[in-house]
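Lab manual, section 2.4: Encoding a predicted structure.

Procedure: take the sequence of the chain (192 residues), apply the prediction step described in section 2.3, and record the output as structure tokens. A sample record is shown.
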Amino acid sequence: MIQIASCIIPFYNEGKQVLKVISAVKKVKSINEIICVDDGSTDNASLLIQQDFPELILLHSFKNEGKAEAVTKGLRKVTSENLLLLDGDLQNLLPGEIEKALERKPKGYQLEVAINQYMMEKHKKVYYIRSSALNPHKTRKMFFLKGWVKDIQMDLGIIFYLGLIDYLKQMFFFCKEGIFTSATNSDLTKIE
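Recorded output:
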């Protein structure tokens, strides 16, 4: 089932590229509102949006405050339960891909694996950063049996969402190369 969604497009000096993104989003029937947030651009993108898409919600910042602030401004105007967040500089955005994404409403960890799946399909190189920080296993947080049950439920939810083959591809082939910091063991302080 296709989910009805609002779309926030933050942008900063994207020129005509943001118009291409908006054009693609406008073709998606399940998007009920588009909120563009100009994060203090000095080009004429806002003017072009007003001319070409006067029905959109267009918000402005007087200065560049960063993407997080632009998204926050957009969130204050959202009326849908579902939200699609797109960058204003995306290239080759296809309305069909947006529809497909909205058909499969990810929940919990499914959002993370949906992003991973997209990165794999587009042959993007993704690295992990080695860190001394560890996430405690659910058995430490919820006791042994309840922790394992929660882990199994999570894995089954991901397999149901992705399918077994794509789940295994992510487990064995996705993000296997690390970026290492120049910090030495003496530079690191354990915080408890």
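Check your result against the sample. The helical segments are 17-26, 45-52, 67-75, 95-103, 109-121, 138-142, 144-162, 164-173.
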